[in-house]
Every structure is written in C-alpha cells, then in structure tokens.
C-alpha cells in the first residue's frame, strides 16, 4: 500500500514538474526570446507542432502555408516577416537577402538542429562552427556568387521546360 502511494506521488510530482517545464518554455518563447516580438501563429511561436503538423500530417504542405502566414502576419512593423517556429523567421521579400545572409556584425554559429538537418556528416552545409564553415565554404564560394547564380538561370530554365514537357507527355500517355 505504501509503495503504491509513494509511486503515485512520484508520478504526480513528475507530471507537475514536466507541466511547469512546458509552461515555462512556452512563456519563454512568447515573452523573453529575442524573436518574441515577431508575429506568427501562437502554436508556431510556442512549439514546433505547427510546422510538424503541416509537414508530417498533411504531407509537406508547410511550404505552401507560408504564403497564407505572410498575408495574415506579414504586415507588421517589422516588414514582410512571419515567425515559423520558436527558432525561425521567414521573410517574404528578396530585398532582405543581403541583410539576412551577410553577417557583417560578427560571427554566427548555426543552431545544432539546423547544422545537422541533413545528418551528422562533416560537410560544408552541416558545419556548426562559424570559422570551420567559413574555411570549408571558401573552397566553393565562387559557385555561390550572384554572377554565377545568374549565369545558371537560362540553363535551369531549359531543364525545367524539358521536365514540364516530359511530364505533360507522360500525363497524356497515361490518359490514353
């Protein structure tokens, strides 16, 4: 009897502590994080559940949901920005490119979750440390300049046109 009461109390204490941790984490995301001022859906601000729902339950639809989020939340004093999850913002304006991707005010290490999104492989994209990433990136920097990317646009457009033509032919063959 005493063991059952003791284990019941321990379970209750564990649940209370877990609940308090969850509540404090959500409060931190809403009020105390550096990103707290940026608008977005409440569930997306509090947890990753919003993003997971659209990507896992609805089969990768979160990318398409972004446009709706910008219509709803993108008219803030911060410009065309919406909060995707507790750790990320999304900008709906290409004019922000230089401001976002040009770290002129110092070093910025990637979040562990972001650096390991493609697996824990020692590659350029998966490098968390700023200095190591910079060293690895220097070998391929020439391929990421604006000029190099713009030079590839006609080639990419040709590939896309060929792909669309092949898809249309496949659909026509399937419908016959």
TrEMBL record:
Transmembrane segments: 6-32
Matches recorded under Gene3D superfamilies: Cytochrome P450 (1.10.630.10)
Keyword Membrane: yes
GO molecular function: heme binding; iron ion binding; monooxygenase activity; oxidoreductase activity, acting on paired donors, with incorporation or reduction of molecular oxygen
Top-rank taxon, per record: Eukaryota
InterPro entries (UniProt xref): Cyt_P450_sf, Cytochrome_P450_monoxygenase
Required cofactor(s): heme
UniProt entry keywords in alphabetical sequence: Iron, Membrane, Metal-binding, Monooxygenase, Oxidoreductase, Transmembrane, Transmembrane helix
Family, per entry: Belongs to the cytochrome P450 family.
Full protein name: Cytochrome P450
Source lineage: Eukaryota, Fungi, Dikarya, Ascomycota, Pezizomycotina
